[in-house]
Write a structure and sequence with these properties.
Length: 235
């Protein structure tokens, strides 16, 4: 089974929507684990009530899961805007982060991931965000994956990192991580799936980054000028 770890409710389909559709077409089992799935962020009209906003956004995501037959698990950890309520800026590097709380989340995520891995008999292929765009919620998830690999708890041949769209190519790819972890990239051709992916994403009217035109540009921007999503694996 392929399991995509999605920091926020929009990330899985935005970054790997084409790949997930292609895997499903090949009759592979695909699942998503939504990690920071409590949100108070809505495009255009930031509503302060996480309960209302989360319900709306989850409804959008559920429709896509139903339409594609992809299963999902929601961990319901509040995203950074709710964990650090005084934060004025949305992005991690500018956020005031409660280090103790973040360390607890780190440990909790390691436990959850290891439980999931045990359920799959250690055979599942796990996809984590590479952290392009530097959002703290993406970075935590990446750090957890790297820690589990480096401590020998996860088999590195089952661990992959995906480009966080639509932050590629505008934001730099984290070269230090790629070099330290000895990662190598692989393009996934999504020419046949792009139209459907854009259709699915277009339903995300309340999510800030779900700009279909931008995603189309992302898919076409990779080196071979084809139509791709990109993942990174250990050498
Ligand atoms: Zn995200």
């Amino acid at each position: 089974m392929r399991i995509v770890f999605s920091p926020h409710l929009d990330d899985a389909f935005i970054s790997l929507g084409g790949a997930m559709l292609a895997w499903k077409e090949k009759k592979e089992d695909v699942g998503v684990v939504y990690v920071f799935s409590i949100t108070n962020w809505m495009k255009g009209k930031p509503d302060k009530n996480p309960e209302t906003v989360t319900a709306i956004i989850k409804d959008e995501v559920s429709k896509n899961l139903d339409a594609t037959g992809i299963g999902a698990q929601m961990l319901d950890i509040p995203e950074i805007m709710i964990r650090s309520p005084s934060t004025k800026e949305r992005h991690g590097e500018k956020a005031r982060v409660d280090i103790v709380a973040e360390a607890e989340i780190f440990d909790f995520l390691e436990e959850v991931i290891m439980q999931i891995v045990e359920q799959g008999g250690g055979k599942d292929q796990l996809y984590f965000p590479l952290g392009i765009g530097n959002h703290i919620d993406h970075i935590i998830l990446r750090a957890v994956a790297i820690d589990l690999v480096n401590s020998g708890k996860l088999d590195k041949k089952n661990v992959f990192f995906y480009d966080d769209l639509p932050f590629y190519p505008e934001h730099p790819t984290p070269g230090d991580i790629i070099i330290d972890q000895r990662l190598t990239s692989e393009l996934i051709d999504i020419k046949k799936q792009l139209k459907k992916k854009i259709e699915l994403i277009s339903g995300y009217k309340n999510l800030s980054s779900a700009n279909p035109k931008l995603l189309e540009e992302c898919a076409k921007s990779y080196v071979d000028k084809g139509c791709n999503e990109r993942v990174w694996k250990y050498k």
